[in-house]
Amino acid sequence: MGLSAQRRTDDRVIEDEWRYIYGRKFNKWSLAAGYGIFWMSADVNDYNMFPNNIKFTPSAILSWQLHPALAFDLKYLYGDMYGKATYNLYNEERIKKPVGVYFKGDLHDISLNASFFINQIIPFPGPVKDRWNFFVKVGAGTSYFRSALYYTENDEFVGGYAVDSPTEGYLVNGWDKYNPTEKTARRQEVVVPATAGVMYRINNFFDISLEANWHFTLSDHYDNLLYGASNDAYPYVGIYLHYIFGKKDRRHLRWTYRGYGFDLFGRPKVDPLVDEVDLFEKDIAKFVDNREPKIYVVELTNTEYSVFQPVFIRTIFFPQGGNIRFSTEDIILMAETAVQMRANPEATMTIYSHVDDSDPGDHTKLTDDQCEKVIDFLVEELAVDRTRIKTQSLGSSKPLVTGAEAAPEVRKMGNRRVDMVLTL
Asked: Do both 287 and 247 map to the same domain?
C-alpha cells in the first residue's frame, strides 16, 4: 500500500549469508590463546594506585556461541602471585614490631563465563563496521593455589605466632605447615570473574580481542595474612588470538546480523503494525481504492447540457515531515498516470496534498513540499508537461480517515497523502 515510508526499515547493505536466520548454519566454536598482565590485590601489598607486583602470564579460552549476542566461555588462567608490605608482627619473644614480609605462589583459575555481545542487542544488531564486537562477561569458577608468607629480611617462612594465631606451624597454603618445603594439595577457593572487552574480526579464520578481567574471591587467604576488611582479588588484562573451527566459507555466529522483523533467535516475528495496517486498509477502502485506478464519472452542468468526464484517482502516502523515497508501487502509479496523459493530450491533473493535524510545522508548506516532490518526479523522470498540472495544498483541512473506530496512528497515516486526480 505504499506504507513502507511509515515503517522502520533496515537500510544496511548486508550479504544474505551474513544474516542470522533461524535454522541457518554458522560456525560456533573457537579456541583462543592469550597473554597479559596479572597482579594480586591482597593485604600484603605496599602500593596505593599503581601495582608494583605485575606478572606476565598466559591464558586460554574455549568458546561456544549459542546466539549472536550470547556465548559460553570455558577459561583457564595461570598466575604467579606476589606481594610485599610491612606489618606489626610478633617475634618469638612475643614482642610486636614492624617487620617486612612478602608472599609468593601461583594459581590455576578455571571458570565458566556467559559472554554478552552489546552490539548484538541494540537496534539493527550486528558487528560494528563489520569488524568490531563489544562484550561483557560474568561467570563463576574455582582457583587452585599454593602460596607462602616470608620475612623480607632473611626469606624465612613466617610462623603462626607472628600474627598471634592459635594454629601451630607456618603461614602457608598448599605446603605442609610443619615442613613448608613439602608440597600438599592446593587450596581451592570460589572465584567470580567479571570482564569487559573488545573483539576485532581479522577474517573467517581468526579474531583478536582485548579483555580486562577482575576475579573476585570469597576468601582472604591467598596472601596467608588475614589483615584488612576485604577479600583478595586478582585482575588480568590480556590480548587473545582466536582460532575459529568449522567451515571456512561460513561466518562465525558472533559476526552475523539480525535483520529487522526477526526475533532474538532469528525467527520471523509478528510486526506490531500489522493489525493497524489491516484496519487502515479497511478504512481506506471505504473512501478510495488507491491501488486499482477506476473511472469515476463527474457531472458538470450548465444552462443547456450536462457533460460527464472520466476521472482517475491515485494516492501516494507520505511519512511525517514529507521525507519520502518513492517505492516501486509509487513509481508505477505515477508512470501509469504519465502514460494516460500522453495518450490523452487534453487531459489535466490536479494534485491534492494533505497532512495530519498533529504534524509539527507549517501545514501549508508541508503540503506544498509534498506536491513538489510528486511533480518533480513526473516532470523530470517521466517527461510530463508541467503546465498540465495544478496543485491544491489542503494542509490538515480535509482528513481522509474520520471514523472513531480507527486507531490514532491509522488516522495519522491516512491523512499524510497526495491524491493525483487525472481528468480526461
From this structure: no
In a domain, 6, yes or no: no
Give residue-wise pLDDT tens across range 138-154.
999 999 999 999 999 99
Place of cell 593485604: 43
- Counted residue by residue, the chain has a size of 424
Same domain, 228 and 279: no
The parent domain of residue 299 ranges over 274-423
Is residue 234 in a domain? yes
Query: pLDDT tens, 204-245?
Result: 999 999 999 999 998 888 988 877 657 899 999 999 999 999
- Does the pTM surpass 0.85? The reply is no
The terminus-to-terminus CA distance of the chain in angstroms comes to 25
Question: What gap in Å lies between CA 404 and CA 279, rounded to an integer?
Answer: 12
| Domain co-membership, 317 together with 206 | no
CA 71 vs. chain centroid, Å, equals 14
85: enclosing H helix or E strand:
strand 70-90
The amino acid occupying position 409 is: E
The CA-CA-CA angle for residues 197, 73, 34, to 5°, reads: 60
Same-domain check for residues 44 and 179: yes
Question: Tell me, what amino acid is at 17?
Answer: E
Contact 223, 103 (CB under 8 A): yes
Q: Among residues 228, 255, 282, which one ends one of the domains? A: 255
Rg (C-alpha) for the chain, rounded Å, is 37
> What letter represents residue 6's amino acid?
Q
